[in-house]
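Backbone geometry:
***
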Amino acid sequence: MFQNYVKIFHYQEKEVIMVVTTYLLTTGWYEEFLKFIPDGKLFSLRAVFEAIPGILQNLPITLLLTAGGAVFGILLAMVFAIVKINRVKVLYPIQAFFVSFLRGTPLLVQLMLTYFGIPLLLKAINQKYGTSFNINEIPASVFAIVAFAFNEAAYASETIRAAILSVDPGEIEAARSLGMTNKQVYMRVIIPNAAVVATPSLINSLIGLTKGTSLAFSAGVVEIFAKAQAIAGADYRYFERFISVSLIYWAVNILIEQLGRWIEKMMDIKQPDKFESLQQAEGEGI
């Protein structure tokens, strides 16, 4: 079921990007634009812009990795945070182990462990329980999303935990005095207030996750960085192609940053001014 959703999202987003890139190439104005850009043997600025339409065709895969890793990562981070706050006897040691391991190992290593580990796990399940999981039908992007989600959860869990603990205890007690259950207190009081505190940090984590998706090529996922490498392999213009993909990453992250500011504005999150930040830094002895 999950891999079907992945395929649907991938194809829908890819169709949109294909329409955009096709428009750029078929209307002719982009080719005319390239003619005015200087070309050279040692360094070609024209090659930088020539590669952008081709790289953009794989942008949906990068967006899929980012969105999947962020959504599942935040959900898992909330579970980690709640387990740590409540010190659940059985789950707390497991949570502590996973968070420590994920924060203490490189993302690339985690990606490789996921890429090679999940197929081994599914094979073991097939042998023991007689199931018929077809490992070859699982897209490589699924393994990458799992790795990114766990890595994101390890860091976001501390952000969410701190945000939950920052909620005014008076509001929590007031909600309970009105007869709310623990679930209602979390859904109506704790999570909305914690979201206001955690949102700026989670937006920064999302930007970092977007850049981290460039490692997915090592698991066989052809996202924009892998596509840039493939294009560069045809004419050995690696430097120019990497500039091309860096411009795309930059543009995407600028959009994410602006989206984050819009969300903060909608949630009425006030940014501290420079004077308040300086006073806080002096008070903490920084």
Remarks:
- Residues 28 and 34 are 10 Å apart (CA to CA).
- Confidence is low (pLDDT under 50) at residues 274-282.
- The radius of gyration is 23 Å.
- The first helix runs from residue 2 to 26.
